[in-house]
Amino acid sequence: MFIVNYKDLRLSFNEFHDVTDNDMPQYGECCLLELKTGAYTAGSWHPSGNGRSTAGSFIRGTADAIESAEVERWHSLGRYDLTESLEKEGSNWINLGPEKEGCRSVQFADFKSFADGKNPKQEQYCLLIMKDGSLEAGRWRNWPHDEAGGTFLYSPALSGHSSDMVWAWTPLSIDQFFAMELERENEKKREKKLNKSPWVDPELFKYGTDINVYYEKALEKLREEFSWATLTMMRKCTPVWQIAPLHGKYVFGQISKNCYDDSDIVTPWTEGACADEFIDFLCRYTHDTVKHSNPEEKFKFGTDINVYLEKAFNKVKKDYRWLDKKMIGKTWQYDIQRVDGDLEFVRKYRDESEYSVYDVESAERFLECVESDYQSTALHENTITDRYSVPFGHVELHGWNLERYDVYRLETGDYMVRVTAGNRTAGGSRDFFITPYCFEAKTYEEFLDQYLEIVPDYSFGLGKKELLPNKDLKTFLGY
User: Fold this and answer.
1) Are residues 286 and 149 part of one domain?
2) Total domain count for the chain?
3) Which of 222, 408, 421, 427 has the fewest CB atoms within 10 Å, counting from its CB?
């Protein structure tokens, strides 16, 4: 337990190494840096080439590094453990390296602590005293909705020291990233001040500053072509338009969240200069969404959800013969409910407490989606009893490499294929049920003609040329 008062603490760095002496730290060593500009920062040393020269960079984070040519001298951070000094009552001056006459020294003070509710400013690069007594450095990043408070980033791939690992911190010099953040914060303050009393353009907001008025006027025009049009249908076309202040005046805009700090980003409408032009734009913007929301097409089989579910079940049952309604009840649940005044298909998964809108434009499209859910459920419920892995050489699929091509025999005697592909950073698998009509073929070659309609070679890598000579696969499939 450290008992030193961090507010009175001074750290004196007395053992600097001049870069001009070709004296560089060990690879990966974290160092305090004095730049040629007189500023102070830190970073971990990564030499270039064979590492025998001063060429290289001090890494501070992702796309954040200081080239050695910018550095005057460095001082190790990683070689010190301050535990003994910090546990000594009244210790408020700690020398890092021996004090010598004429040596280069610099002191750091004004330490702060998270224990007192003190946070660095966003993007501020800081010297850190860790709770284990070691010295580190990092750039403060307070992520939106981060319950831990934030992180000091110090290397690529967003590696960082979390706030609960840090005993005390003090800022180092302002750098370009922190300067940019300060300017951004100042711009936000200027914007906030400008937007306290935004100007209203009389031509642009002839009908006032309630966005609902403009949607309603656009609705009147849309109903000349689509009698079923509603405001709910129009607002399905996202992002919706709003009236918001921007640079001291009201604009028609779309508002999104900045993932960096959760602030609002207003993207203004720029396709016209008056209210009626915006209303015409709203009609064009929502036209296709309203066109494809015709209730007569969407609910052509009525508003009893069981009618749709029965149709989907009967169609899937023809090929997936083992499917029963108990299996379906374990996964998706569907309904038709009124949402914001309009009827909608809705669904929820397993134990979810609320339904969500399942936005489709027609009854046929809804049935296709339900059928796909039922097919996945049926395959999941059919136990795999045997597998044959199809051998192949190098196969590239639209930038991905084929990794596995497996044929499975299921408990019911049916077959399924799983194709797996990936690249250096991502990958995935897809399952395909070999429908019974494929096995109506008299010969293995005729079977492949039917099979390749389900798992086509142009999409999944292996075609008739590769599969026809495979006697083991032929036998596995019962031919």
Assistant:
1) no
2) 4
3) 427
Phi, psi (rounded to 5 degrees) for 30: -80, 130
- Based on the fold, state whether residues 277 and 307 are members of the same structural domain: no
Does the structure show a pLDDT above 70 at 162?
A: yes
Does residue 83 sit in the same domain as residue 153?
Answer: yes
**Preceding amide of 239 cis, omega within 30:** yes
In terms of domains, do 157 and 77 share one? yes
Quickly tell me which residue has 């009525």 as its tokens. 302
Return the pLDDT at 174: 96
- Other beta carbons within 10 angstroms of residue 410's beta carbon come to 19
Contact, 350 vs 330, CB < 8 A?
yes
Q: What is the β-pairing status of strands 93-96 and 10-13?
A: parallel
Cβ atoms of residues 114 and 229 within 8 Å: no
358 part of a folded domain = yes
Cβ atoms < 10 Å from Cβ of 403: 15
Q: 76: closest CA among 134, 138, 143?
A: 134
Buried b (16+ CB within 10 A) or exposed e, 72-86: bbbbbbebbebeebb
Q: How far apart are CA 162 and CA 154, in angstroms?
A: 11
* Nearest residue to 300 (alpha-carbon basis) of 266, 264, 345: 345
> Can you state the angle between helices 363-381 and 305-319, rounded to 10 degrees?
50
Please check whether residue 205 lies inside any domain of the structure: no
CA–CA distance, 371 with 384 (Å, rounded to integer): 22
Strand ranges (E), 26-98: 30-35, 40-47, 56-61, 64-67, 71-76, 93-96
Token pair 């309203």 in the structure block, residue: 290
- Its pTM stands at 0.69
CA separation for the pair 90, 263 (Å, rounded): 44
- pLDDT tens per residue, range 368-418: 999 999 999 999 999 999 999 999 988 887 778 899 999 999 999 999 999
* Amino acid at position 141, single letter: R
Beta strand 135-141 with 71-76 is unpaired
My answer on whether 12 and 155 are in the same domain is yes
- Side chain identity at 138, as an amino acid letter? G
Alpha carbon distance, N-terminus to C-terminus of the chain: 76
Take residue 445 and report the two structure tokens written for it: 């070659």
Q: In degrees rounded to 5, what are phi and psi of residue 142?
A: -100, 100
At 301-311, the pLDDT tens digits run 999 999 999 99
- C-alpha angle with apex 135: 123 to 106, nearest 5 degrees? 85
Q: Which of 378, 402, 435 marks a domain boundary?
A: 378
One domain, residues 274 and 307: no
**Domain for residue 330, yes or no?**
yes
Q: Point out the domain boundary residue: 378, 402, 434.
A: 378
Domain boundaries, position 344: 297-378
Same domain, 433 and 325: no
**Domain annotation covers residue 328:** yes
pLDDT per residue as tens digits for the range 330-358: 788 899 999 999 999 999 887 888 899 88
| Tokens describing residue 77 | 């951070």
